[in-house]
Amino acid sequence: MTSSTKITIAVSARALFDFESENQVFREDDPSAYCALQASQLDIPAGPGVAFPLVQKLLAFNGGGRSDVEVAILSRNDPVTGLRVFASARHHGLAISRAIFTSGAQPHRYLAPLEANLFLSAHAPDVREATAAGFPAARVYPSSGLVTTQDDGELRIAFDGDSVLFSDEAERVFRQRQLQEFNDHEARHARSPLPPGPLKPFLTALWALRGQRRARVSVRTALVTARSTPAHERAIRTLMAWGVAVDEAMFLGGKDKACFLAEFRPDIFFDDHVRNCESASQLVATGHVPYGINNESGWVLH
User: Fold this and answer.
1) What is the mean pLDDT of residues 93-99?
2) Among all residues, which ones are annotated catalytic?
3) Distance in angstroms (rounded) separating the CA atoms of residues 182 and 58
4) Domain containing 44: what range?
5) Is residue 189 domain-shared with residue 271, that is, in the same domain?
């Protein structure tokens, strides 16, 4: 993973572009119908997918001789379909020049040489494999009805806390001992930083990016968590210990996050709970982070 201040995002073709109708004919054991359909549409640009606004705003940081962000397409599609992917990127004005098309082979093994800070895919198994290998990754919920390509000059990212920015250490206490013991535990450890979670490197990279003070687009981040007082303090002090900050912090005490996210309007929201992701994805672009106790057998909540 890169140690520079540059952000590198690897994104699947289906996350970046709306391939949902084509995906209806896809079969894992025989992708020929899907490939033939894509080949018949090489000259028809695909519409924006759920990750499109995020990628568009990230790429807007580049210019003036600087290249602070790189977006690479990392896709299970075959190289012929890759022609349509590249043509769609050109059509929409996305400056993407790097791509890997694996024809169904596991793509996550290319994340290390790409030096990716984040991998976004609509294919859940690929995201699980990337996460297990130690890469920041999230499964996006494709929903073309949510996509807006309006660029308002502000990149907004919302993160859950435990099992996303932070490790699942505190979440395990909550699951195993319930709310009162969780609050007592967090109050006792308020000044002990939480271990980092899978998306901490991405938050750190965003913090460095906003430090570039690019005029084209600004960055606004939010922590959106089920924590409430007194468990709020450890979360804030952990960010302070890391030398980063968020612009907004929502300690919701278990209230549904979706309506709060609708007001913040993130370009993407990351959470480890499938239930939270399914709710949020009806209103905002959402990425499920398959990490921690909530994603272990016997604990997954749907």
Assistant:
1) 95
2) 160
3) 37
4) 7-142
5) yes
Q: Which is more confident, 77 or 149?
A: 77
Whether 221 maps to a domain, the answer reads: yes
Instruction: Give the residue ranges of DSSP H helices in the chain.
Output: 13-16, 20-23, 32-39, 52-59, 79-91, 111-114, 124-132, 169-188, 200-210, 232-242, 258-264, 274-280
Residues 86 and 158 placed together within one structural domain of the fold: no
Same domain for 227 and 135 = no
For the record, the structure tokens of 198 come out as 């899978």
Type of residue found at 174: F
Residues 189 and 249 in one domain: yes
Whole-number Å distance between alpha carbons of 150 and 48 = 11
- Quickly tell me which residue has 């793509």 as its tokens: 107
Same domain, 108 and 171: no
Q: What is the pLDDT of residue 5?
A: 63
| pLDDT per position as a tens digit, 57-69 | 999 988 777 788 9
Q: Please report whether residue 149 resides in a domain.
A: no
pLDDT score, position 149: 56
Per the domain annotation, does 277 fall within a domain?
yes
Q: What is the pLDDT of residues 6-34, one digit of tens each?
A: 899 999 999 999 998 888 898 888 889 99
The DSSP output letter for 14 is H
pLDDT over 70 percentage in the chain: 91
Average pLDDT of the chain? 89
